[in-house]
Amino acid sequence: MEKITSFTIDHTRLVPGVYVSRKDRPGGQTITTFDLRMTRPNYEPVMNTAEMHTIEHLAATFLRNHPEYGSRTLYFGPMGCRTGFYLLLSGDHESRDIVPLMKELFSFIAGFEGTVPGASAKDCGNYLDMNLPMAKYLAARYVEDVLADITDRQLIYPE
Could you give the CA distance from residue 15 to residue 25 in angstroms, rounded to a whole number? Predict the structure, then answer.
C-alpha cells in the first residue's frame, strides 16, 4: 500500500501550528482538512486523553454554534498520536484564513468555566475521562505560544 499523505510529512521538523493537511472535492465541493498541531511531535510529551477529550467537546460545541463557521464545520476531533486535532471545514481555505477563528476558539477553551457540554453518561460514552484544568492550560499555551504571533513556519508544512 502507498503511504497516505499525512504520513509523508516530516514529523521530526514539524512544529506546533495550523496547517492545511489536505483538500478534497467530493461532488465538486471543496472540503479543507486542517492539522491543528498543539505539541511538537516526537519532541515533547503528547497530550493525555482526558484533556484532549475535554478540548474535543468544547471545540466541537463552540465551532458548531459559531455564527460564521457553524454551518461550515464538518468535524473536529483528535489525532491518534495525541499531538493535535483535525478540523474539517467545507470550502476552500488556507491556514492563515482560520487563524482568527482558532484564536477565538482556543481563547474560549482557555477561559471556559462550568460544566463541559456533553459530559454526562447520557451524552457521552466516556464522560468521566475529562480534565478541564489541563485543557484550559493547553489551550492558553497554544494561543500564547503559537497563535498570537504565528509565522509561516507554523502555517506551511516543512519540505
Answer: 28
